[in-house]
Amino acid sequence: MESKRYTLSYYLIKRQLYWISYLPLPIPWYNKPVSTFCCFVSFICLSRLIIFILVPLEPTLALYLGDFAYNLDSLHDIICSMVSFWLVAILISFHLLDQTNRSVKLQAWFFRLSILDKGKDHFFKKPNNKLAFASKLLFINLKTSLVCCPSFAFCLYIPHIINNYSNATLVIVLLVHGLILVMAAFMGICFIASFGYLFAFYAFLIGQKLRYITRVFKFQIEQTTKSYRKIVSNSDHLVSLVKQVYCADLFWSKANSIVFFATFFPQILIVYSVFFVPLNAVHFISLIGLGSINFTCGLSVNFVCGVHARSKLNDCQKQLIRVIFIKDAKLRVPLKIKLLIISEYLLPRKLFAIFGALEMNSLNYLLVFIEMAIHLLLVILNANRK
Fold first, then answer.
1. Which residue in 9, 15, 22, 256 has a CA-CA distance of 20 to 30 Å to 377?
2. How many domains does the chain contain in total?
């Protein structure tokens, strides 16, 4: 984490072309225009997909307009809808990120990840091995997805390029459409997948901090002679951490909602397409690759780490309540009141939630998969009727 090339700021600016003004490194002048252009390209792609779904087109015209799913019959509308979810999420996420330039409250998400720039923060003053390993996994996932997702997206056009290799004009047109889809896929990684991976690391980081605070509380409870100073100091750490989480949640609750919207329904459509519809080898591999990235960033690591952070928060609350009611801790009444307020008001809040309601815990994670299975059955039944 010490090398500049592996800092979060450097990666966001150089690899993902972020233009947000609160990053600590200079922003190249071309980041904003290039990102805006790619966002406009995503909007064009979305408009075309809506036309492809609503308007029947001749095969040749469909190819010239860039409809890579024109020959997939009943699967055509499903794949176009799947990609449309991603494109809508890109536009919403682009707007959210741009909003953070004008709202200080929405900038807290980045400052809570300062450990990815410096290798340490005010809480972990020395490099932490678990967090160092997690940061390496984070950057591996980010960089791999940034390469693989556009590649899989371009592969959707390869069968058509091969089948029409004798028509040079059409091949050139298809290559252009492939590059357009590559730009849209690049935006998808920058503004959807990245948020999923970054939240996963953030939630794991918060979980590690809460784990440390919980251990200190538990240690003091087990001691015959309680240290009032350590209890107060640890309580201050908890209060400060919960405030930071609450401030960062103003951004993460919106970002997580976008990521969930972008990945939940497309994952159902991908599973249906891959397992219940015959596909050529290239489309099959492309959908498997896109589905893997979709599931990893939106329906696995972010949820698992969110569940981890929420469970550590619950453990910390239990130890905090035990500390408050220990008679020989000799806590002053104002401090007890302060800790009770934290315990009863801030800690039970949905600090790791989607749409402000779907809290990240084990039960809700299970319900998400049950809901996906139900929707998948509905898609299969609807397809059989047709």
1. 256
2. 1
